[in-house]
């Protein structure tokens, strides 16, 4: 149920007090997090709007609502900034905004980064939101269009893993009908953004390329890469 900022101190996640948030427009309190409409502005594409979720453990997630058909969810702020087409990326604290007292205000000037900053400080400056898997692409064997695979979660890694092993993979094989051969292919200029935390146009580095971990390797898979990883993992156990 949506609550006003004045109710934050007595319910929901109890993360912020009234004085902290009284000027932030549309702040909503859920059972375990606070959420608010946010956005990022590109000079070329205009405003990309989303919903920012702030968790007490410091995690930040953004569900993008830039177009009615956009299915980007649980993006890190850096990934949302890149998805918006912002020209000066890698400054998401300054480039992502919320509406406060009717004006666009950068996140860095609000209290919403309180828990994120605390978590980063306690981890010696290492962000907890950096992931070690970049987005990957596969062509449909029917229409030839390149389709993006996001590897944020273990389930998504498995979808890509199985698709890569399928020599006849087609758009219709994508889970939840996320793509169809009749859908437009992602622009080549967008495909260069693959989710690296080091550089928005990185072609592959240790920050975004993983050669095997418990998130992208599967003990119930009989392929060589998974078998080798499972055997190596067992041999290293005490």
UniProtKB/TrEMBL annotation:
<dbReference type="InterPro" id="IPR057011">
    <property type="entry name" value="ULT1/2_SAND"/>
</dbReference>
<dbReference type="InterPro" id="IPR020533">
    <property type="entry name" value="Developmental_reg_ULTRAPETALA"/>
</dbReference>
<dbReference type="GO" id="GO:0005829">
    <property type="term" value="C:cytosol"/>
</dbReference>
<dbReference type="InterPro" id="IPR000770">
    <property type="entry name" value="SAND_dom"/>
</dbReference>
<feature type="domain" description="SAND">
    <location>
        <begin position="19"/>
        <end position="107"/>
    </location>
</feature>
<dbReference type="GO" id="GO:0005634">
    <property type="term" value="C:nucleus"/>
</dbReference>
<dbReference type="InterPro" id="IPR057012">
    <property type="entry name" value="ULT1/2_Znf"/>
</dbReference>
<protein>
    <submittedName>
        <fullName>Developmental regulator, ULTRAPETALA</fullName>
    </submittedName>
</protein>
<dbReference type="Pfam" id="PF23293">
    <property type="entry name" value="zf_ULT1"/>
</dbReference>
<dbReference type="Pfam" id="PF23292">
    <property type="entry name" value="SAND_ULT1"/>
</dbReference>
<dbReference type="InterPro" id="IPR010919">
    <property type="entry name" value="SAND-like_dom_sf"/>
</dbReference>
<dbReference type="GO" id="GO:0003677">
    <property type="term" value="F:DNA binding"/>
</dbReference>
